Amino acid sequence: MKALRTHDVGGPETLTLDEIEVPSPGKGEVLVDVKACAINYPDTLMIRDLYQFKPERPYSPGGEIAGVIEAVGESVEGYSVGDKVMAGIGNGGLAEKVVVPAGRMFPIPDGVAFDKAASLLMTYGTTIHGLKDRGHIKEGDTVLVLGAAGGVGLSAVELAKAFGARVVAAVSSEEKGEVAKRAGADEVVIYPKTEMDKDASKALANAFKAACGPEGANIVYDIVGGQYSEPALRSIAWEGKFLVVGFPAGIAKMPLNLTLLKSCDIAGVFWGAFTAREPVKFRQQVEELFQMMKDGKIDPLVSETFPLERGGDAIAKLENRQAVGKLVVTMD
Question: Which of 129, 175, 213, 251 places its Cα 20 to 30 Å from the Cα of 242?
């Protein structure tokens, strides 16, 4: 079988398409014939050894897959050959077949395509955990979403609207603003792509404040980081929640005096650790997402698909912050 693998530390251009043995499922595992693998921000970090987890090389990146069970190992209950499943696996997804622990899988709901199934767990899973468990979202809140046109950003727009919030989408272009509006955003703020000086940072903070309204943002959902975090923090409401989700623009240096002035909280959203520490709650939230998808409240936007041999291009596009919605590698 074919697998796109990393052998050495480096960017997506270092990935190689290898011919390797088909793995066999062990006890409690199944072999999945992968149909789709979504690309996520951790994939860009992992191959550069910049992520919290550093798998032993060689390995395939890709932590979010959908496919069909091809073989079932010993002691697996509830799954059979031919079942359509989705799973969050950390890494290994950019391969034609992958062994998955049965406890990491979910049946794909009826009528959901493989590319959309592969795009649900990490993005929407991160966001439902972030908004509910870390942000304590409630109806009538104002939510400011940075990076609102990416996969995680659009999930935040959709879920915040589903929970009854007003959403301000912050994006880097008019085109991305239109994508966020179609997902349900009430207001759009376009931030500069170039480095901001003090005056530009202040202007962006004022734009956030104007869009969020006089009370400010009850929740700031920060997927971007870097120079954009402080202006967003300045627009937060009294006792608001600033959620740290990712930082492709760099790790922000925040003036902590603002947390005192606004009596606000800065909270991290580490979904991967949450799924391991609270597996029952995690599965409950996935079931909630399935129901929301069935009800038409959420619908992952897959903007582009790539064949396996071009999986590195998908990672590069995400790394360069050019992606809108989700980028998915398909095996057919």
Answer: 175
